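Entry for adenosine-5'-triphosphate complex. Fields follow.
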Amino acid sequence: MIEFNNVTKVYKNEFTAVKNINLKIEKGEFLFIVGKSGAGKSTLIKLLLREINPTEGIITYNNQNITKIRKRNIAEYRRNIGFIFQDYRLLPKLTVYENVAFAMEMICCNAKNIRREVPLVLSMVGLSDKAKYYPDELSGGEQQRVAIARAVINKPETIIADEPTGNLDQETSKEIMKILTEINKRGTAVIMATHDREIINQYQKRVIELKQGVIIRDMKTGGYSNDNKKA
Ligand SMILES: Nc1ncnc2c1ncn2[C@@H]1O[C@H](COP(=O)(O)OP(=O)(O)OP(=O)(O)O)[C@@H](O)[C@H]1O
């Protein structure tokens, strides 16, 4: 589904953030991207979201070379992908319900569909009773659940999450992981950059590790690092 072929990104200041990346991600996969701060995780995600283009190499999504997508077609490409960020990025003046509905309105859906789908997704993330709340009336974990609801409302093929548990305590992080795992079980690929050692070791999913912009490890069911495997 997703393929990076010899992808290198050199920023304007001549810093090489990722180098010669070769990576294949299949439909429905669950993938953790790990690595120290500055290793290139967010750069990889930005490349995939087509926020930036590589300096060299090709990235394909369902055989489409995304590095060649025209600016006006980027939004259409991103409809395949739901994103979740560490800082939630909800719209502060909209309620929980409206935040999720807004994502549907952006891509066309009629009012009837919206009235049917939004409550279903809010129920899936356990927020039916908070539909009328505003983001600043919610805990961090609840805000992240709204962000997940918003990311999945249009049934994307892939979810990309950049440090989704980065601001949350361990218990709340586990709740978020439960929801992401459930979404993955329903067939959506989940690509998640994280520093959370405990989560990675617990879930035993595919792990790629970046170091100074290079993939130094790609394991089908890895832990946080080679010396930290589950016994
Ligand atoms: N726009 C930019 N211009 C120049 N250098 C950049 C830019 N964005 C990132 N970098 C550099 O590229 C390297 C990789 O950054 P990136 O944000 O991908 O790392 P990361 O692994 O996501 O780190 P973190 O875990 O801290 O978020 C860093 O050294 C960073 O300083």
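NOTE: The pocket of adenosine-5'-triphosphate is lined by residues 11, 13, 15, 17, 35, 37-43 (CB under 6 Å).
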